[in-house]
Amino acid sequence: MKMITTLALATMMTVPAFAQDTTVIGVSIPAATHGWAGGMNFHAREAIERLEETYPQLDFVLATASDPGKQVSDVEDMMATRNIDALVILPFESDPLTGPVAAVADSGAWVTVVDRGLAVEGIEDLYVAGDNPGFGRVSGEFFVSQMPEGGNIVALRGIPTSIDNERVAGFEAAIEGSGIEILDMEHGNWNRDDSFEVMQDFLSKHADIDAVWASDDDMAIGALAAIEAAGRTDEMWVLGGAGMKEMIARVRDGDTIVPADVTYPPAMIATAIELTALNFVSSAPVSGDFIIGSVLITQDNAERFYFPESPF
Amino acid sequence: MTEQTKPRRPRLDLQVLGPIIALAVLIVIGALMNENFLGYGNITNVLSRSAFIGIIAVGMTFVITAGGLDLSVGSMAAFIAGCMILAMNALVPMMGTGWSTIFAGMAIALALGLVAGLANGLLITRARIEAFIVTLGTMGIFRSLVTWLADGGTISLDFTLRGVYRPMYYGGILGVSWPIIVFAVVAIAGEIAMRHTSFGRHCAAIGSNEQVARYSAIPVDRVRAWTYVLLGILVGIATIMYVPRLGSASSSTGVLWELEAIAAVIIGGTMLKGGFGRVWGTVVGVLILGLIDNLLNLTDLVSPYLNGAIQGVIIILAVVLQRQKKAER
Fold it and tell me: What region holds the Periplasmic binding protein domain (chain A) (predicted)?
């Protein structure tokens, strides 16, 4: 028995490249439809490039989808035509992708799920995600620290999803009992134009706003433009989130209207891809949950979070 | 014949009143719910925001009247905005951060709009492909191109240049902001073109019966292609007003603008299958759409989750109002 294995190994070594057992890792992510996703696409491509160079035995298939249906097809195609050994997926939506990803797991392939969990637990081998309740909590705690006396704030929410709900719940729990009152909350859909318009209307509606929880840097940019146009920049400050480079630069430079930011790094896709690759090239165990904490960025630590090359 | 001419006056009045009644109802509801609604600031906000869709919708009125459709305008606006910003940023070292750079950017936006519209128009008239399919295709192309240009992120205008360009959206004459002025000029010119020029009448003739129009020696293909070129140029103008607002463009710019523009045109009384167009109706339609959003933000009546449903109901109601009057003929 041992002989055969040794023989097999010997033949493998003598015939390079062809016989070398390449591992195919499929990566399926949403297309770059907004800033955060753009950054995520950038970090995914960068991680893949680096890994392919470092480990010639790894082969990557990257597919970007603009809707859940397309993503389901992508995953099915990867199974059928590329016979993937592992799948790294950032699901567009949990429910529609659960079945197809379960089928990949059933085929024996390694599954890494990123950011958004599947509807059924226990399918994935590795789960890499940001901490959404933590994102809301860190943001809320910052408001409490800045407004010890309480005050009036307005909030912009993202696209109605479980991510958004978890963040808002975390935020509301953190400011509870602090005297901070949320005057109004509307969906800015993580979009600059939408949040510009919502913020304009908030400004018409409320005469006394002390601060804005924009909950996302794209939305913060829209809200800031509206506040600037209304000439009310002295009255309030804005807290975004995610860690867009322009906003981090403003925090670093001590802009009073943008005192801080809270991370939700799009580079978490790189963490997921690297960890998945480790499973195939090393003996390091990587299964389980890997939760990336949300960190408060202030002027003191902003430099560490500033990535000039990233599009986000 | 006599039967048709007799009840003409009342029918016309009711049909015309449909969108105006809807608009008036919205304004009254708004004024009752929030005292800031009719304030100068809020009115300026709503009109300026509606100007992009409005300028595009005026062009869309001609396309639809001539029996066509253009789904690519939202993506086209995003693409033009991206190219315009990149071009202006590239011109800064040569031309400095003054108005000359901005005028060059505007010229590029208009030229791109013209070329994009001409491409749509020629594919539809010369290659004889359905307008729906051609513009669905170009919609995807423009959207991907802007995502590619932005490398998935956001294209931002040079900071000093943005400061110079900014008054184009926020400034104005005598308290009326530029987007509103441009929208008004475009709307009035459109109304005149639709009612008092051969171009407008040819559009209606083609939309109502292409064969008859052809026999009547109307250059059907040329007129039709021109409606798309006109729309492309208007998308360019809308982009010129849009860019100074946030000074950036990304793949999420102009999403669903095409549907909003088409909805505004139909709410305004233009027939989706062509043959009859009403530019001032389109303006009313644009204002209705703009006010719904504004009202929903200013009041706490409904859960934000239901905003889309309220919009849908009001759009359908505004059209039902007209269709019922029409059935009375």
Answer: 25-257
Nearest CA in chain A to B167: A229
CB A182 within 8 A of CB A154: yes
Contact B231, B77 (CB under 8 A): no
**Residues A311, B293: C-beta atoms closer than 8 Å:** no
Residue of A38, A187, A222 lying closest to B304 (CB–CB):
A187
Q: Which residue of A70, A202, A204, A233 to mutate against B (max B Cβ within 10 Å)?
A: A204
- Tell me if A2-130+266-292 shares its fold with A132-262: yes
Residue B308 included in any domain:
no
pLDDT at A15 over 50: no
Q: Is B44 on the interface with A (CB under 8 A)?
A: no
Q: Which of the residues B46, B151, B162, B170 would you substitute to probe the A interface, choosing the one with the greatest number of A C-beta atoms within 10 Å?
A: B151
Whether residue B89 lies inside any domain: the answer is: yes
The domain over range A132-262 is classified in CATH as 3.90.1150.10: no
More confident residue, B34 or A277: A277
Task: Quote the crossing angle between the two packed helices B40-65 and B257-267, to the nearest 10°.
Answer: 80
**How many domains is chain B partitioned into structurally?**
1
Quote the minimal CA–CA distance from A8 to chain B in Å. Answer: 46
C-alpha distance from A300 to closest chain B C-alpha (Å)? 25
Q: Which of B75, B177, B246 to mutate to test the interface with A (most CBs of A within 10 A)?
A: B246
Judge whether B314 lies within some domain: no
Mean pLDDT across chain B: 87
pLDDT for A307:
81
Specify whether the CB–CB gap between A26 and A107 falls below 8 A: no
Per DSSP, the three-state class of B98 is coil
Q: Of B113, B120, B141, which is closest to residue B232 (Cα–Cα)?
A: B113
Residues A278 and A228: beta-carbon distance below 8 Å: no
What's the pLDDT at B323? 66
Q: Could A202 and B152 be called an inter-chain contact, meaning their C-beta atoms sit closer than 8 Å?
A: no
Selecting from 3.40.50.12280, 3.40.50.2300, 3.40.50.20, 2.115.10.20, what CATH number does the domain A2-130+266-292 have?
A: 3.40.50.2300
ipTM of model: 0.76
Tokens of B131: 């307008």
Nearest CB to A39 within list B41, B153, B307: B153
Residue B207 placed within a domain: yes
pLDDT of B22:
83
* pLDDT (tens digit per residue) in B57-74: 999 999 999 999 999 999
User: What confidence tens digit (pLDDT) does each residue in A57-90 have?
Assistant: 899 989 988 888 888 888 888 888 888 999 999 9
